[in-house]
Amino acid sequence: MNRKFRVTRNEDFQRIIGMKQSASNGTFVVYYQPNSLDHVRIGISVGKKIGNAVERNKAKRQLRAMLMELCDRECPADMIVIARMKYATQSYQENKKNLLHVLKKVKMIEHSILNCKENVSYEFCQEE
């Protein structure tokens, strides 16, 4: 994931989480907020409950890969994805399915996956 698609500053994390727009399931919590850029920015948080540093880094790499595949990069929004403890006990495919579920709640799925780019509308991605 390119650096311009990442939320890296602590102030940005706190601002996005502070807006309290979120969707969640047993594996992930996703906070989101519209931004003024022409692309999405994503921040990933994996807590110490997931495991040691090696396991947390693996989880972040996997999450980045899933998000690059599933998320619409042209939608002007900031997103924070927080992995819950259940993430460590599930397989990659189960985690991907759960991430897809929570992204559908947030309406950040890439149109081309669904092959209906013209028919999908976004809550905060529409031009007004």
Describe how the helices and strands are arranged:
Blueprint: H1 10-18, E1 22-24, E2 28-34, E3 41-46, H2 53-70, E4 77-83, H3 92-106, H4 111-114
Helix pairs in contact: 2-3
What key attributes describe this structure?
disordered C terminus; alpha+beta; Ribosomal Protein S5, domain 2; single chain
Structural summary, described in words:
The protein has 128 residues and is of the alpha+beta class. The protein has a single domain, classed as 2-Layer Sandwich (Ribosomal Protein S5, domain 2). The chain is 36% helix and 18% strand. It is built from four helices and four strands, in the order αβββαβαα. The protein has a four-stranded mixed β-sheet, with helices on both faces. β3, α2 and β4 form a beta-alpha-beta unit. It is globular, with a radius of gyration of 14 Å. It starts with 9 loop residues before the first helix and ends in a 14-residue tail after the last helix. The C terminus is likely disordered.
Short characterization:
The protein is of the alpha+beta class and 128 residues long.
Instruction: Give a count of the beta strands, DSSP E runs of length 2 or more.
Output: 4
- The fold-level CATH name is Ribosomal Protein S5, domain 2
> Unreliable stretches, pLDDT < 50, 5 or more residues?
110-128
Q: What is the second-level CATH architecture?
A: 2-Layer Sandwich
- Sheet with the most strands? 4 strands, mixed
Helix fraction?
25-40%
